[in-house]
């Protein structure tokens, strides 16, 4: 074991080095020589990269119908088992089936993007850029098909909405 010399036993030089670093950073920030990285979140919009995986959405065909064919590949590839699809028969004989019920449990989702990669018809995407998912009730995190298609809007507390409004 190495023996400590006199200055190492005092710890004073190390304390002064640490205080010098703290003081230097303090005055650099006070005098404005350094760029501030803090964002005032609700007032100042946050930059979201185009590759960011945000809230899910379902895509529509040109005629307005959902692109999803209820093939169950997204639900099968999901490691969190948060996608629940119930297939239904379509009235049109050229269309085999469609999702009668399509629900995503955002509380279980790990936002891995495997559902997007597994979808053969590009029906599900995560490119909304919405990252502030907040609600008062756990049931508001079960996103049904009409919300994923954009017909309804979720209650988002982070945007200033409250259940009373």
TrEMBL record:
GO cellular component: plasma membrane
Protein name (record): NADH-quinone oxidoreductase subunit I
InterPro entries in the cross-refs: 4Fe4S_Fe-S-bd, 4Fe4S_Fe_S_CS, NADH_quinone_OxRdtase_chainI
Alphabetically ordered keywords of this record: 4Fe-4S, Cell membrane, Iron, Iron-sulfur, Membrane, Metal-binding, NAD, Quinone, Repeat, Translocase, Ubiquinone
Organism: Entotheonella factor
Functional note: NDH-1 shuttles electrons from NADH, via FMN and iron-sulfur (Fe-S) centers, to quinones in the respiratory chain. The immediate electron acceptor for the enzyme in this species is believed to be ubiquinone. Couples the redox reaction to proton translocation (for every two electrons transferred, four hydrogen ions are translocated across the cytoplasmic membrane), and thus conserves the redox energy in a proton gradient.
Swiss-Prot/TrEMBL catalytic activity: a quinone + NADH + 5 H(+)(in) = a quinol + NAD(+) + 4 H(+)(out)
Annotated HAMAP family: NDH1_NuoI
Pfam families: Fer4_7 (PF12838)
PROSITE patterns: 4FE4S_FER_1 (PS00198), 4FE4S_FER_2 (PS51379)
EC number: 7.1.1.-
Gene: nuoI
Cofactor note: Binds 2 [4Fe-4S] clusters per subunit.
Subunit: NDH-1 is composed of 14 different subunits. Subunits NuoA, H, J, K, L, M, N constitute the membrane sector of the complex.
Family: Belongs to the complex I 23 kDa subunit family.
Gene3D superfamilies: 3.30.70.3270
Every 4Fe-4S ferredoxin-type domain range: 56-88, 100-129
Cofactors required: [4Fe-4S] cluster
Membrane topology reported for the UniProt record: Peripheral membrane protein
Binding-site positions, [4Fe-4S] cluster 2: 78, 109, 112, 115
Binding site for [4Fe-4S] cluster 1: 68, 71, 74, 119
GO MF: 4 iron, 4 sulfur cluster binding; iron ion binding; NADH dehydrogenase (quinone) (non-electrogenic) activity; quinone binding
UniProt subcellular location: Cell membrane
